[in-house]
């Protein structure tokens, strides 16, 4: 069993810092929530690197919201539900599509500059959207612009304190409530931060896989520490692989935005054949899981490690204007988006599941909230609709703050579990080797295509690493590996349990969607194990 805490420590012997609200992580979820909360609360933001290091920074396509007069919340709702493959919470989707435009207005007031044309927002269309509703910034640098604007604003707010290069090891609970976090400082010393509310904004689990569009910080820390604290973790089997990451010798798995296909790019196999018409009527704009599996099928059929993305039929001026960062990045590796077919392959991109929350972002542990990719609000279902993630973060960030503002101050200073002092030995094997081995297990057995034999074998291999939790950990890399191992086992257990194919979860031994038995969520809990939620039809 995974232990309650990663380290042996006497919390009563540690220095204590008191804050109203503790925000763990940065990105759009952390920054937006902190800014909203700071109006009535003293806020501490804790990041393990800096405010600029998050998945948001790398978001290219944009943010989905109903802005155009020919669009409507009903259309956005329909598109989201279709992409979610029957597992979305309709109530959560209603919240998203109706409150998203107000969130965009907030971002603009906070300094975000979205692209405009003739005085109006320049909207684009992405896969599985029926209308142009994607706002973007600097062509294909939307995430960077949002993080730039929000971090600049946060630095100017006296009631927001930022701790860079600090690692949150575990959440602290007392009488069933979350009352703060155990934090390690850059010098290795530890302290206890207490607050009336703790908000997890720690991002996803992209580093479970060798090939990912996510930065190095995406190690599932929030999900893992919430699981250890007793929160319910929902739908971890649904990992979205982005169909088109750059696949070129010497280059990182750089994201080639879905918006490129939205603007007319087509996919070709290495023989030069356009192939999406054999897989889906929406062709290149089919849901991401469909496109990603189609690419893998073509790669296997042609014995290749990539397919091509071709937008050379569009004007060079449009390409350079609309996708300046993608164009420049590819050019650095000798690839010209205006004249060359770009080699691409799927890579781990987004986690639909996460810490289960209600419509105000609160978990089953009072005073503990989750926002952004680490949360499972019910918006994304089995497969996230493109560009809904940034919208979700601002909509539920605002709702979390509404709930926090109604909370009474924290009174209890104790903590639930006495922590044993039994960890004597440091890790035996270099953690970098352990991490690479874990990633290989996940790619081989818990990737785009799954079956019971492979999943069970993968879980067995992962469980061989369980003794690691009982070794003496003290570095960020060791904590991250413990969190990755936790999330890897949660993902694999959920994937074994769901005996159907739906959205981003594809079982070769159960290739059909089964609405009769599986219109339900998987729920994981540290003490209760894995359970199946009520039918959501």
TrEMBL record:
Where in the cell does this protein reside?
Cytoplasm
Which controlled-vocabulary keywords does the entry list?
A: FAD, Flavoprotein, Oxidoreductase, Pyridine nucleotide biosynthesis
Catalysed reaction, written as an equation = L-aspartate + O2 = iminosuccinate + H2O2
Task: From the UniProt record, give one GO term of the biological process aspect.
Answer: 'de novo' NAD+ biosynthetic process from L-aspartate
The positions making up the signal sequence are none
Tell me one Pfam family matched here.
FAD_binding_2
Name of the protein in its database record: L-aspartate oxidase
Organism of provenance: Paenibacillus phyllosphaerae
Phylogenetic classification of the source organism: Bacteria, Bacillati, Bacillota, Bacilli, Bacillales
């Amino acid at each position: 069993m995974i232990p309650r805490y990663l380290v042996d420590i006497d919390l009563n012997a540690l220095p204590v810092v008191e804050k109203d609200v503790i925000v763990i992580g940065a990105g759009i979820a952390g920054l937006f929530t902190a800014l909203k909360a700071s109006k009535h609360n003293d806020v501490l933001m804790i990041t393990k690197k800096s405010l600029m290091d998050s998945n948001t920074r790398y978001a290219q396509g944009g943010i989905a919201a109903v802005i155009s007069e020919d669009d409507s919340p009903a259309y956005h709702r329909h598109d989201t539900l279709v992409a979610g493959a029957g597992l979305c919470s309709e109530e959560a989707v209603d919240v998203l599509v109706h409150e998203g435009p107000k969130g965009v207005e907030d971002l603009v007031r906070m300094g975000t500059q979205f692209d405009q044309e003739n005085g109006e927002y320049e909207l684009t269309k992405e896969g599985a959207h029926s209308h142009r509703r994607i706002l973007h910034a600097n062509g294909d640098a939307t995430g960077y612009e949002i993080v730039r604007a929000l971090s600049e604003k946060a630095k100017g707010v006296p009631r927001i304190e930022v701790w860079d290069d600090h690692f949150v090891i575990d959440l602290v609970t007392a009488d069933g409530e979350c009352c703060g976090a155990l934090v390690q400082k850059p010098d290795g010393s530890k302290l206890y931060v207490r607050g009336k509310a703790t908000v997890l904004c720690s991002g996803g689990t992209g580093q479970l896989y060798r090939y990912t569009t996510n930065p190095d910080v995406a190690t599932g820390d929030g999900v893992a520490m919430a699981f250890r604290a007793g929160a319910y973790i929902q739908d971890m089997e649904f990992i979205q692989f982005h169909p088109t990451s750059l696949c070129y010798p010497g280059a990182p798995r750089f994201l080639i935005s879905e918006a490129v296909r939205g603007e007319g790019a087509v996919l070709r196999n290495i023989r030069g054949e356009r192939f999406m018409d054999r897989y889906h009527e929406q062709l290149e704009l089919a849901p991401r899981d469909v496109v990603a599996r189609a690419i893998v099928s073509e790669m296997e059929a042609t014995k290749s490690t990539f397919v091509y993305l071709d937008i050379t039929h569009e004007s060079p001026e449009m390409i350079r204007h609309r996708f300046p960062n993608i164009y420049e990045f590819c050019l650095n590796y000798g690839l010209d988006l205006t004249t060359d077919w770009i080699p691409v392959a799927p890579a781990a991109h987004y986690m639909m599941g996460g810490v289960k929350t209600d419509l105000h972002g609160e978990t089953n542990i009072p005073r503990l909230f989750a926002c952004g990719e680490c949360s499972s609000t019910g918006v994304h279902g089995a497969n996230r609709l493109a560009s809904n993630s940034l919208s979700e973060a601002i909509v539920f960030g605002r709702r979390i703050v509404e709930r926090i503002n109604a909370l009474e101050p924290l009174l209890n200073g104790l903590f639930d579990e006495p922590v044993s002092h039994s960890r004597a030995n440091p890790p035996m094997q270099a953690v970098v080797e352990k991490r690479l081995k874990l990633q290989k297990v996940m790619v081989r057995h818990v990737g785009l295509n799954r079956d019971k034999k492979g999943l069970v074998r993968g879980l067995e291999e992962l469980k061989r690493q369980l003794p690691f939790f009982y070794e003496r950990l003290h570095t960020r890399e060791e904590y991250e590996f413990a969190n990755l191992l936790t999330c890897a086992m949660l993902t694999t257990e959920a994937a074994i349990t769901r005996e159907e194919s739906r959205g981003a979860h594809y079982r070769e031994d159960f290739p059909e969607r089964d609405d009769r038995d599986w219109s339900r969520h998987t729920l994981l809990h540290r003490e209760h194990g894995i359970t199946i939620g009520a039918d959501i039809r």
